[in-house]
Amino acid sequence: MIRLSGKLRKPIGGRDERTPHSSDDPDHSMRVLFIEDDRMNRRVVKDMLGVAGAEMVEADSAEAGLAILDTEEFDMLLVDLRMPGMDGITAIRHIRARGDAKAQLPVIVVTADAGADLREQCLAAGADDVLFKPVAMDSLFDAMGRILAKNAGAGGVIV
Prior knowledge:
By secondary structure, the chain is of the alpha/beta class.
C-alpha cells in the first residue's frame, strides 16, 4: 500500500510494503494543494484526504494556487478545470513551465466537465490523471496510489 503518512488510517493503492517518505520525519504527512473554486468540493476532498492522514491546503482560484505553490512545499496537486479567472489547464501549463522541482509535482485534474477529448487535453497540458466529479474516495486514492507508485518506479520518492 502507498502510505500518505506515518499514521495512515486508510490504504492508498494496492501495495502492502512500507514505502519511504519524502521527509526523514516518520510522521511526515503527504501535503496536497487542491486548487478548486467551490468550497463544498474542497471540503469533501479535504475530508477524504484526512481519512488517509494527508494534509490539504486549499486555493480558491488558479492564481491563488500558483501563489501558494511559490511559497509552500507539496507532494501532489489536485486541480479543477473551470474556475473564474485562469482555468485549470492554463494553471497546469504554468506549473509545468516552472524552472524548479515543483514543475514535476504530480497533478490530478478533478473536474465535472465531460468533454469527449477532455482527458487527452488535460494529459497534454501535463496532468498525470483525470478524475470526474463526483469523486469517490476509492477512485481518488487509487489515482494517487498509481501516480505515486509510477513515480517511485521511475526513481521518484513516495511520500
